Structure formats: C-alpha cells, structure tokens
Amino acid sequence: MLSAAYPNRMVVAFVTGGTSGIGAAFARQLAGEGYDLVLVARGAERLAEMATELRALGRTVETIEADLADRDAVARLAARLEDPTRPVDLVVNNAGFGMHTSLIDADVSEHDRGFEVMCRAVLVLSGAAARGMLPRGAGNIINVSSTAGFITMGSYSAIKAWVTSFTEGLAVELRGTGIVVTALCPGWVRTEFHERAGIGASSIPNLMWLDAEQLVTACLRDVKRGKMISIPTVRYRALIWMARHAPRSAIRSFSSAISSSRRKATAR
C-alpha cells in the first residue's frame, strides 16, 4: 500500500459505489489508513452523507455523482483518474448490482446495464488508473469481482468471471511497473446488495455470510502482500479450490441448486 510512499503529499483513493456496502467499508478503512477520498456514486444525498462522515475523520473528500452505465460519465471519471495534477494512488472499482434476469428473456436491457457498469466501466477506469499511475511507478487497482464468477449463475456469474480474468490479465501486463492489481472475490456479504436485487437470501446458511468490514480488511491485507486474487476467509478459499478442480457437471448442478433455492425464497 502507499500510505507512506509519498511523504510530501496526501495519498488519494478513488472508490466507485462508495456510499454503501463493500464500497463504504473500503472508504472508511482507507480513510482510517490516511487516504483522502474521491467517492463516486449515483445518489447525491448519500454521497453527501458519506463525505460528512469521512471529513469528520479529518479526511479531504471529493464527491462525483455519476451513473457508470452512462459512457460519457465514465469518460469523465477516466479523465479524472488520468489528471496528473490530481494524482490517484489507489482505485477500487466496486460499483455493481445483482442480476437474476433470465438468459432467454427477450428484454436484454438489464444485461446491457450489467455489462456497462461491471465490465466496460471496469475496463475503462482500470486502464485510466494505470495510465495515471505509470509515470509514478506505483499504485493499487482493486476490482471487486465475486466467487459467483467460479460457478454458473447466468449473466452475473459470466460478468464476474470476466472481471477476475480481466484483472489477472491487467496484472500480467503491469508486472514490474510497481502497480499492484487485485481482484477481490467475496462470497455472500451482509449488505443491501441482495435486497436491492430482489434476490432471496433466507436459504443461505449463516456460516456463509461475511461482514463487509472484515472482508475489506482481508482484501487490503492481500493487496499489501501483492496478491492478484483475494478470496477472504479459509472457508471460501477452500470452496473455490474445489470449484476450480471439480467436474464442470458438478458445478452446474450446484449452481442450479442455488438458483432454485433463491427463486423459492423470493417467492415466499
């Protein structure tokens, strides 16, 4: 991490989706580590509330209201990341949402939005962040993916599999530059995420739930160690190891069982 790398200026972290859930946990912990913040989110009111909270900790906070499904908005954010007069040292591409739209639905608008927010925006903002960091020879890029990317649950799994693979590819391309790139692959995290997505979560065992603050602590520890993929907790690392080595037919059966239980829980 970079909190001691620049003694003559404050270090800055840029967090998308930084007003709730995992993004808010990143913002709070990075503020506690001495980072000033650039927070990006769609809602002006929640941005203002979060900024007030972090400023009370003595941090400088810049807020940017933006919808990452809007390509013009993403272009403006990319320009902010590349601005040499306002350097950004750590980027967290966290913005996203749950999806359970059928893959055969004639209306693909939800899939389009998912691709824009969780694929294209990650691609554009990661590239811009890297271009801004390269002249300084240091930086951190964290892309929030998901353990869902290792199974087969529709567009969301496909999108998160792309995020993980893209992040690995970017890390390979930036090897030796001083920029550390990490994909965070959480499991089920207690946030507003599932409620917003209309996904039934009552059937998920308590053992599988993670706390957002603990998740972020584990991720930042992995980033400091230079890890390319961060899968917090031993139980999730074990599960993903099995998912990587199990027959694909078993993964498809497991994914089908989860999808079925979610549909039943939502119906209730």
Automatic annotation (TrEMBL):
GO terms for cellular component: membrane. This is Short-subunit dehydrogenase. Belongs to the short-chain dehydrogenases/reductases (SDR) family. InterPro entries: NAD(P)-bd_dom_sf (IPR036291), SDR_fam (IPR002347). Pfam families: adh_short. Keywords: Oxidoreductase. It comes from Glaciihabitans tibetensis. One of its GO terms (molecular function) is oxidoreductase activity. SUPFAM superfamilies: NAD(P)-binding Rossmann-fold domains.
